[in-house]
Hints:
The complex is a heterodimer of chains A (737) and B (705). With 737 residues, chain A is α+β, with helices and mostly antiparallel strands. Chain A has 5 domains: 176 residues, Jelly Rolls (Sandwich); 117 residues, 2-Layer Sandwich (Chitobiase, domain 2), CATH 3.30.379; 140 residues, Jelly Rolls (Sandwich); 199 residues, no CATH class; 31 residues. Chain A is 19% helix and 29% strand. Chain A has 12 helices and 39 strands. In chain A, the strands form 9 sheets. In chain A, strands 31-30-32-36-35-37-38 form a 7-stranded mixed β-sheet, sandwiched between helices. Chain A is globular and about 100 Å long. With 705 residues, chain B is α+β, with helices and mostly antiparallel strands. In chain B, strand 1, helix 5 and strand 2 form a beta-alpha-beta unit. Chain B folds into 3 domains: 267 residues, no CATH class; 210 residues, Alpha-Beta Complex (Spore Coat Polysaccharide Biosynthesis Protein SpsA, Chain A), CATH 3.90.550.10; 87 residues, predicted glycosyltransferase like domains (Thrombin, subunit H, Beta Barrel), CATH 2.40.10. In chain B, strands 13-16-17-20-19-18-14-15 form an 8-stranded antiparallel β-sheet. A 7-stranded mixed β-sheet of chain B has the order 3-2-1-4-8-6-9, with helices on both faces. A 3-stranded mixed β-sheet of chain B has the order 5-10-7. Chain B is 52% helix and 12% strand. Chain B is globular and about 90 Å long. Classes of the chains: A alpha+beta (737), B alpha+beta (705). At the A-B interface, helix 11 and helix 12 of A face helix 1, helix 2 and helix 3 of B.
Amino acid sequence: MRTRPYRWATFLSALCLSAAAAAAADPGKPVSTSDTAFLAPQRELSFEDLGLAYPLRLRTVFGQASVPLNIRADQVVTDATLSLRYSHSPSLRFDTSHINVLVNDQLVRTIPLTAESASGAVAQITLNPLLLVPKTQIRLELIAHYARNECEDPTHSSLWAEISNESSLKLSFSTLPPPPSLERLPAPLFDDGESGLLTLPFVFERSPTAGQMKAAAIVAAWFGAKADYRGADFPVRYGTLPPGHGVVFTTRAQSFPGLDPAAVSTRPSIAMVENPDVPQARLLVISAATDEGLVQAAQGLALSQLLMEGRNASIDTLQLPEARQAWSSGRWINPEAPRPLTDGALNPLSVTGLMPGPISFEFALPPDLYPLDRDSVKLRLKYRAAPITGANSALNAVLNAQFAGGVAIDATALGKSLGESRELTVDLPSGVLRTNNRLDAQFHFRRNTDAVCQDFDPNSLQGSIDPASKLEFKSYAHFAEMPALQLFAQGAYPYSRLGDLGGTALILPQGAQESEVSAALILAGHIGRWTQDAATRLEVGGFGNVSEFADRDLLVIGRAGELPVPQDWAGELPLLFDNGKTELRPVDLFDSLHERLAGRNLEQASEYASRVVMQAGQDFEAIMGFESPLKSGRNVVVLAAGSQGNLRDAALAVTKPGQAQFVRGGLTLVQGDKVSGYDLGNGYEVGSLPWWYGLKRWLGLRPYLMLPLTLLVVLLSAVVLRLALRRRAELRLKGKL
Amino acid sequence: MRLTILLVLLLLSVPFYALVTAPLTLGWQAVTGTLMVISAFGLKRMRGHRGALAMMALSLIASTRYLYWRITETLPIGPGFDAWDLFLSSGLLFAELYAFTILLFGFVQTAWPLGRKPAPLPEDPALWPTVDVFIPSYNEPLSVVRPTVLAALALDWPRDKIKVYVLDDGRRDEFKAFCEEVGATHLIRPDNKHAKAGNINRALKVTQGEYIAIFDCDHIPTRSFLQLTMGTMVTDPKVSLVQTPHHFFSPDPFERNLRTFRKVPNEGELFYGLIQDGNDFWDASFFCGSCAVLRRTALEEIGGIATETVTEDAHTSLRMHSRGWKSAYINIPQAAGLATESLSAHVGQRIRWARGMAQIFRVDNPFLKPGLKLGQRFCYANAMMHFFYGLPRIIFLTSPLGYLLLGAEIIKAQGLMVLAYAAPHVILATMTNSRLQGAFRHSFWSEVYETVLATFILGPTMLAFINPKLGKFNVTAKGGVVDRDYFDKDIAKPYYYLFLLNALGLVVGIIRLAGGEAHPDTLLLNLGWTIYNLVIIGGALAVASEKKQVRTAVRVRTRIPGAIRLGPEHPAHLTPTVDLSYTGAQLLLPEGFVTAVGDRVEILLIPDRSDVWIPVTVRRSGHGVVAVQFETLGIAEENALIYALFGRADAWIRWRETQAPDRPLHALALVGRYGVIGAYEFWRWFTGDLLERLHARITRRKVPG
């Protein structure tokens, strides 16, 4: 899941006075870059690359919007040209209409609008590279008029201009890597100026042991947490250094020719050194004499217990913090004590003007948060609006792009003066709530049009959201209907439950190949992204010792037919691998009937999935979720690939926003870019419901039991009551009662 | 044993909870509801208590499920609904909660009618206790009181152990003379404080009998009354009250105006036939003011008859129960009286009961009063809360109008969903009540009975509930004999407004339906409800169409042995009666007995027990029947007549034999028929009377113009 899937946030034209801050929080679309891309001296970025999925539309007499541009800290722009593709209304008064281009609030060009440019034109604008700092805002303002002497409607529909998202920015860089140092970790390996997928090679001497794997997974989770919504890819190499940045795990200095021997220590340590093959690139070297030492170094890094100074840091003793409680990570809203909504604000809490953009908030809910009531999650939005708004002005609350509630805020409802906030209460629809949520508070202002040609200042239309706004939770449970790979893709459930991964075991085959290790690290990064915590208590196992981890949720990675799981699990997997043949396990008949009652057709899903598997031959990957055969209530997710498939594709499908949305159900098939998820029954439940809810849910899911149970209760109570009452009647007639 | 039963019931409450709360789709709810109703038809065939209890359980599941759904899913709260919707909706919900409570309490109350048999008295009459018979009277004419006193004097009890007292608050000389003549004691007091209760309390002070039998002055006891009731008293010294049913041998206004006398159980039969018997199971049968025996010690312990409320009888019982005294109910009619004459008198009496019960609910609430057992609390509470039906009934009668006329969204649900939940609830409750009460109250008749009274008892109960001193209402009793057919528009006023309002709702609804509607199912549901309401209100209007009473003395259709002769020197012919009244009789014409109209002959009633020949005049003869009129009767003759007419132990026992068993759909059809008749009569009155007056007014105005 993308943390910030709402790229159109910034292109709603806004009379937003501090647009820079708003856009700073909006990073744009992740762009996959190769691990050496940062070395390229020239790049051309379209507005689409910068996060605009749709063209920008500027409206009203004074419409504005901004585009964020982030630049790596170790790069300096030497040359910059903006090609602005724009079109606009042909009915404007061209002598008074123009577009201003501003970079970080400095006006760089005024483009006059003409009749010729209405149908489309390109303006080439050379930007002063000194203006382009690491976090830069390119702002566009439309000043447009259609009337000369008569009065003008500032929101007239002819007042528009459109900026294509194919507009592009050509940048020339000079890379100035600072001397290797740990101080700026995770930079330069990860620079938050990059808005795309983080690609960071991990290097081992050879196929990693369980201990090395654990160390690597901890580091991968740490980088995953840092990269956050961008996603992280960790290609793996054995024995050779990468052509750019990289992370190296080693127990011996001699393993990698050219590597600075000073970077390798027998004490658990980390070091930042130049890549001997590419001097501008840096290597993070994690070294120790033993595997345990590597793990300790990784834990030290993840827990920030190392002194990050100079090139080397080592840690001899490490005190692990206490085991985490469920959902204690700061990522999640704790329903017991929800933090203020405005902690997740994406832009300023106040808006001005006729057509303001939304005030947006983000919040993440534990993926297994199970509302028991329609009003389990209540939004209390405290707002203020200048009491001069016209009729039909409104404040709407939009949850995940779906309207959730609203209130009229015209002056007649607000009164003449307003000194305190009012409250809009919305029961957030549980069907729309997800792991990661975005809430837009959208003011819709209407100006008062009672009198013609009334003097009107759009800036007097103001609205704000009070910091006291909050979410309230009541009557909920931690419960999930499984298998639900969508929760794995969007929230890394169930592994993210304990932030230190104290409930997770990674199971890899013996002598795992690069692609398998890479897939495991990508998933570790994915989990870290969601927990935002140090994965210190993760365990790594293999074919031989799966049963040792019965009490944990397992994440199994392997090739079809060679999965590192016990033989007798074959019947539990949704896919059967048999001598190079792959088949779908037949759908359980009872399951099928049961699901049909709920309007789901398992056979049909199974048929589709079978067809995909058959057509794919061996060139496919599968993600499977099922209940752990070792212990009920524990989960297993298996990443498997056919002999021609690449496990990395499956792992990346979980992290890439475009593909992750199709990861769902109990079986997800990945074939190159194509991802499809299926519900195939075999449902199970994780977590616990209060008995009173569990009971009615249980019966509600089995409506065919209503009548038999009714008759049973009726007849039994008739028999028992008759006995009791007859006894009493006898006593009463005998005069004893 | 007791623990096991409790444990099983506790265990059953778990699936019960699940059955009530499980969320279902419309389809499954409809299927489940239908199957539940079908199963109820199966359970109906199950004999005995088990079947009844099973039906109660089934009905309770359906109703609780409906109500749970209603409360959790359908309240109009949230966007799109305003305070007005919520107001109307909470009104309806209140009414539904009330109906549910009454249903539940009713199930508890009638779970096991005890069917108590009279206990035998000691063999030796010398051991029998002394009894005082109280016959309080205030303004009733002597002709009404006479038979009661005579019947009381004829009670089978050792003469030296029984005394009959006429408690005359009217302090009338003719009463005194009559008492002296027949051997009763005439008691008077200087004031009329606390009316009947005060009258009895005063008499308690000046009498000494161990037991007190109380009869209203128009309730004529059978001679076996004490034989059947006193055994229970003597056997169990903790029993403070033995109550018997009130029986009416003349039609009440419902029976007369709807012509259902002895065909459809009347309003009182449910209470005396079933509820009091059910109460007895819980030791909660209560005193009904007449036809009962009370223990003097118990009565004196609580300070005599309660005087705080206008239903002193139930209140007195409640107090005795709370002191640990027991009560018993013997479900054999052992006294009979005349029913209220006109609808207005009937309404007046019910207002008093309703107000009194509301007063007790406030003064001595059965839920709060210490000393009562749980079952007693339920039974008393139900008896009192029953009279709060005024407001709920009016809400039910007007609810669909909120939607049809005002466009208020009262229930936040699809019409079909409402149907799927409400239909099993209503149908199963009806079926179960028919099973439990069918012999004593036919389905849907409660609706008619309650609708007639709802508007009248609403005020008194509400006011008495707020302050027990308030709520004194008087309905002008028309009194006496209804001598012509007429439409009692004063009594009917509330219903005809309700009727017109519902008719308007129907018309508006049909127009809306024809005009195309977003939710035709909701509209149809409300229309159906409105039509049902119109039928019920029509029934109430039919009751308000008073029918002429044709008699002066009520004729009781009864076949008892008799004899007729032309005179003392002629042979007697044995022949049974066809009917009998206080003024005359019809007998089968015996073969060989020749007589003509105007002849003076003699008849003998119940030759086995009597040798008093009553002189009569033949009024009609032929077709195998001879009708005679009594001449002026001496005390001996009157006694013989009273014995034959009222005093026989089995006088009222086979009364219900002519009633058909309850069949809910037939009952609905019958009520529907009365609904149509009532609507028609109302319409005739409305167009005839009202429009005529209007017309007259218009023409009057035209003349000067």
